[in-house]
Queue: 3 jobs
Job 1
Amino acid sequence: MFLSQLFDELAADLAGNGVPPARADARDLIAAILDKPKFWPTANQSLELDRATEEAIRKAGARMVQGMPMQYAVGRAAFRHLELNVDQRVLIPRPETEMLVELVLGLAGQGGTAVDVGTGSGAIALALAAEGRFDKVIATDISEDALEVARSNLGAIPPEKRTLLDFRLGNLLEPVAGELARAIVSNPPYISPAERGDLPAGVRDWEPPLALFSAEDGMAAIRGIVREAAALLEPGGLLAVEIDARRAGHARECAETDSRFRDVEIRTDLTGRERFLVARRKER
């Protein structure tokens, strides 16, 4: 089959299921399966596909027609300079979380240990290991399934950087109890279970609830991280947590009322939404 035929069929299937914009999604899906730039399928419509490639594209397209997000359908997601394996055991990495990594790289300095709490696919930890100047990067998660995905992504960073990573199973910062960290960073669950119905179907129906929802009106994980981080950060150490704009005030209050922190602030994302809690550990 020629690529042009499959392109048209896939776009028609997606359009019939109400996926907008169908042709753009068909193009992006084909490019992802073939590991090509997004413009490539449009510029190479006369290519004749082998049976295995055609079948792989059709299967991924069928998953998208069912409503599955494209990243899960193709099994990969881009994050900063990395190409990561993803499936329904982990969240799909978001552009906002790329900004969280940028914040940490700019504020944490060099050396010491960075801890990524609730690592999921390993996106934050791997990016910090690849781009930062830390001596060690510890990635924790309460889900063994998530850690399995994160470990599978070690190949996304250079071989000499892989030895920096240490994956540990456990809730929040329990796996690093008693150690000191230069930076603690997290994209924790911060959605209230009561807000489930407000989420897009692609998030609500496909992404893991454990990584989305938190008790105490979405604040339980954030409060736990702030409390536990204060005991583990070295003097001047950085805490950086991705948050929801609806909870920015509560997150800031949580850190400001802990006498062990200084320089507490809320940073915004590229859309101007309050998105990140940043604080420093006071001198001990």
Job 2
Amino acid sequence: MSDFQPKIVAFCCYYCAYSAADLAGSMRLQYPPNIRMVELPCSGKTDIRVVLEAFENGADGVYVAGCLEGDCHFLKGNIMAKRRIKQAKKLLDEIGIGGDRLEMFNLSGSMGPRFAEVAEEMTEQIRKLGPSPLNPAYKEKKETASKEEAQ
């Protein structure tokens, strides 16, 4: 499925990751257009329920981007986010979606080029995994494969 364009949601900390994304844009750096950013006041505000809802609503991959460890504007928000993402990855594995579809990255506001790299890395990782089991494209692909096997 080489034409597969994954839908990826990026939950970005306003102070660092979102600023890095803004810098990447200002520098005219190219990164995949399939990234949908959600601005958060802090990555520590990331809720497992919201991450799961992103998958329910058709995301093939999700990543959370927060401040560099030890440099959070809200002291330990990014440490809390890292813990929650680790729990969510286990949960995704248990329910059959796959924990590899969720990642956490730490960026500073001056890391525009790294933001573009992260977007590219995540897109490639999700392309290799294929559509999410909750994505209608996945169900369609599975049904087509079943029909071909029946013939």
Job 3
Amino acid sequence: MPMTDQAPPQACLFADDGETPNNPVLPLLVYRRAFDVAAARDPAVPFEEAFAAHGWGRSWRNGIYDFLHFHTRTHEVLGIARGRARVQFGGARGQELDVEAGDVVVLPAGTGHRCVSASADLLVVGAYPDNSGFDQKRPGQIDHASAVAAIADVALPHQDPVHGSDGPLKKMWSPPRG
């Protein structure tokens, strides 16, 4: 279960840099200390259970690739189950952020990311919204205009991966009213 009395997630919006499309509308969200995993026998389980319960399936356990990549057909959530890492988000001209055990990062489709450095014990749980497809691209592997168009068509997730239907993602990623 997520911890209670959470501060709002940190939000970062990254511009398209011509190589990495990023997402022009939806910010990356960083939930600090979303889970208390210090005493967990298997620290990945709280992330897996919460993500699955909130419609973020196809979970995996691993680290974060050290090469820049992004997804044009899905959003992604990364739960830091063990260890710490410095991750570059937003492409080659993006921002490096430190994440540690208990943190959760929600990446909107198109957001470039790569691991810059990590502790030897890093364990990450990743997942994707059940209402999305999957792909993985590096800058230059897809026509940029095609990537931007695909990202615009990715559906919003039905729930926040940490807090469910009442989570901050639902407000912070709400479609603009026109």
